[in-house]
Amino acid sequence: MMRKTLYNILGLAAVVAAFSSCRDDENFTDSIFDTTVPAVDETKATYEFDQWLYDNFVVPYNVDVKYRFDLSASDLNFQLTPADYNRSQLLAHLIRYLFYDVYTKYEGEDFMKKYGPRIFHFIGSSGYSPTTGSEVLGTASGGVKITLYKINEMKPYSEGVTYSGEDVNVLNENYFHTMHHEFSHILHQTKSYPVTFGQVTSGSYDPINWQDRDSVWTHQHGYLTHYASSATYEDFVETLSGIITDTKHRWMNRIINATAMGVRQGDKEDILELIDSLDINLDAPKSHWNNFTLYEESEYNDQTDEYDPTDRYVLDEHRLIGDLVTHLYQVVNKDVTAYVDQYKYKELRKFTSFKDDFLPWVKVSTDEDLTGINAILKKIDIATKWYTENWGLYIFTLRREVVERQDNINEYLKGITIYELK
User: By CB neighbour count within 10 A (0-12 exposed, 13-18 middle, 19+ buried), where does 197 fall?
Assistant: First the structure.
């Protein structure tokens, strides 16, 4: 049987060889496909935008921006809607301006050609999971595709419209934090991050119930976000993306919250060095981190950087700014003692200056179980060194570049074109 099979295979090979040797090479072209077909279909109603995408993403970076709804490329666990056409154009422009151009400025176009994602997939609606109660803002598939959700919640662009600082914060929260997060996954899947990173808080990762942790617990146990506490690799990329995109206000919330339980010897100087690297001015008048009061048992929405003025805890006669996350409340230039009992708050301590009052008050401890700011500082040190040593990128430089571009976003938007359907 084996011999007969071998003869059959040899006979088939001979036939194929004979056919190959008898073909007329002059009748064959370089490709069996029609290579005269243009890269962009001029007959489509979306031709102008498609051509812009070809010139700005396909040609320089070999990237396909999928803004049309693609069921086969979507997560069927969610009920999803297509992305709005005009908002898709706006996001594509911003991705080029705030993402590709940033890395290209410091590493050249070859860097993003080699390591950047190959596909962006835009989804109009949220990726909400009724099982866990969590919301997916983006996913990365095999280091190739990044999917971004909630495109239809973007502030639409039109001539004369300006984007406020809060609008930029929403862009960071919904899209760019996610993009830098997912891109960091691609980078660490190419060059592994140090094992020592996960050892800093090795006993407290929880891939199942991470979303149930409040922000006080999160920061006091050495994590920047709830999601960072789900797994080591998520913690690593949340640290990197948080440095690049998170606001100064959010960083100071973390720092104040994480230092409330104390620090280890020598970390106070490292805290001030971190604040300086984040370009936070502690001496700024009426800054968010001066003249504050700490309270227990306040309520907090960790998806925003400002309290909703309609919230029952935010009183019209008081200017409350900041959010010291869940159990910590920040009050500027006002005395709210009379309202503490009414809302069952317990006042902890009043400070007039972060440097003059808060840092001297924070106790120095040798308790090995103490984490908080100490763990955050150590993780930042490990992650940023890995970033520089492996990729030649100083992440705080990227942060400053992104912030500068965001500050100039309205000038940039004046020069873009949003195409109408033909």
Answer: buried
Distance, in Å, from the CA atom of 222 to the CA atom of 229, rounded to the nearest integer, reads: 9
Residue owning tokens 């060059």: 191
Written as six digits, the tokens of 77 are: 């666990």
- Give pLDDT tens digits for 252-267: 888 888 887 777 777 8
Q: Say which residue the tokens 């993403």 belong to.
A: 57
| pTM (whole model) above 0.90 | no
Tell me if 78 sits within 8 A of 22, measured CB to CB.
Answer: no
Looking up tokens 């306040």 gives: 298
Give the tens place of pLDDT for each residue, 277-326: 999 888 766 566 666 555 443 343 444 444 333 332 222 222 232 333 33
Residue identified by tokens 């969610």 is 78
Evaluate whether 272 touches 287 at the Cβ level (below 8 Å). Answer: no
